[in-house]
Fold this sequence. Notes:
Elements: E1 4-6, H1 14-23, E2 27-29, E3 41-43, H2 45-64, E4 69-72, H3 81-85, H4 88-91, E5 93-98, E6 105-107, H5 108-114, H6 125-135, E7 153-156, E8 159-161, E9 175-177, H7 182-195, E10 202-211, E11 226-236, H8 241-258, E12 266-270, E13 280-288, E14 291-302, H9 304-313, E15 319-320, E16 327-328, E17 331-338, H10 339-350, E18 351-356, E19 359-364, E20 375-379, H11 385-399, E21 404-406, H12 412-422, E22 426-430, E23 444-449, E24 455-459, H13 463-467
Parallel strand pairs: 4-10, 20-21, 20-22
Antiparallel strand pairs: 1-18, 2-3, 5-6, 5-7, 8-9, 10-11, 11-17, 12-13, 13-14, 14-17, 15-16, 18-19, 22-23, 23-24
Helix pairs in contact: 2-10
The structure holds glycyl-adenosine-5'-phosphate.
Residues 180, 182, 212, 214, 223-224, 227, 229, 231, 294-297, 334, 336-338, 340-341 line the site of glycyl-adenosine-5'-phosphate.
Amino acid sequence: MSDTTPTANAVATMDKITALCKRRGFVFPGSEIYGGFVGSFDFGPYGVELANNIKKVWWEAMVQHERNIVGLDSAIVTHPRVWEASGHVGGFSDPLVECRECNTRSRADHLLEEVGAFADEKMSLEEINKVFDDNRDKISCPKCGQKNFGKVSQFNLLVKTNLGNFKDDWGTDPAYLRGETCQGIYLNYKNVLDSSRVKVPFGIAQIGKAFRNEIAPRQYIFRKREFEQMEMQMFVAPETELELYDVWKQKRMQYYIDLGFKPENLRFHEHENLVFYAKAAFDIEYKFPFGFKELEGIHARGDYDLTQHQKFSEVNMEYQDPYTNEKYVPHVVETSVGLDRTFLAVMTEFYDEDNLGGETRTVLRFPFKLAPIKVAVFPLLRNRPELVAKAEEVFDLLSKNFRAEFDDNGNVGKRYRRQDEIGTPYCVTIDFDTLGENPDLLDTVTIRHRDTGEQERVAIAELISYLK
Length: 468
Ligand code: GAP
């Protein structure tokens, strides 16, 4: 029988999540020994396992389970013209405003949001300045609290690099770190078409790093300067774009529900102000500790991207339908989600505190496929070589099938708490009965369940199929 009861205050706050992530090795501040580096974070030993599992689950859903989606891993640094064609050199910017008192630069749209006004990247600079001027008397600098700002200007988010450029003045002729992974997909659309047997509608999926010179990285790993995206671009016949868009919108919402997210923590948000080429754009928003915010974007992008690359590269991007011989530039339905945001959503969603056996504990109730460690193996006592040897044997058996951890540190209760905090679904303890003290229990172990604290006896020979 389970003896867990809920606590009154099990809500995941940012303070609790960031402290747990640091304490247990999920996320570390970037360059910490040098005092940190704004907008930069590193995944620690359990963080990298969780991040890899998130990517694996996404890849399974988007590539493995789909008949007409293939994968790609394209370069981070591309020909600079790519970013002119995509519109990023000219238009990929955020509205920046500088405090005249302390010179702190902030995003004008974020400051406006805080006073209940609205501006976004699709508005012209004049329009944003007008809204800002209308609200000036209400807006305070987040650093010094003064209300003395300059004019709003546009700040380009592309990160320049001098890779392969040996001139001293490389700033005048830069390359860029990619601002979104999907551009690599458009560049390879023809290669994939010509080298595999895909037919429209087909998709290309990719996971990889993207870089943006965010003016104000904030909310922990929610908005970083270096982050990872998981993007899928589906190339479709123009007349099917909105129908397939709707299919993917629903599929992507269902994906989170299937992963174990509570429906009430997710919602769709329709973009009020579409970019000129888009037919439709919805965000899936998640209820982060700081409120509902964008987790994933689903966009009907028309033929804008391929047409732009066709124009700038002078390579024909048309597709010829093998049945009708009709030629057209495919339209694109995109799903785009950040790994780091998914990580934060997963930490928030599965964070819990309860009372177990009269003690309050913190527990991450990760689904099995996301858990960094699937099973922990304990010898009951670390100073009994026969127990340790048997536990090592069980660990060797399990670790060939699952990410497992061997732990002989402290009493078993403490080891359970540690594993609860990192979300390990099962703990296996090797005790004297395993060694045959009770002959009926020879070669059996105790399995303890994370969520309920319940324990049961299972034969070592059945452990792998039990855990699978
Ligand atoms: N290709 C479309 C695209 O990049 P986006 O809305 O700019 O669209 C897609 O980004 C997703 O990438 C977002 O929903 C978010 O999950 C993630 N993302 C964007 N900027 C980010 C940042 N600075 N830090 C972390 N994740 C970010």
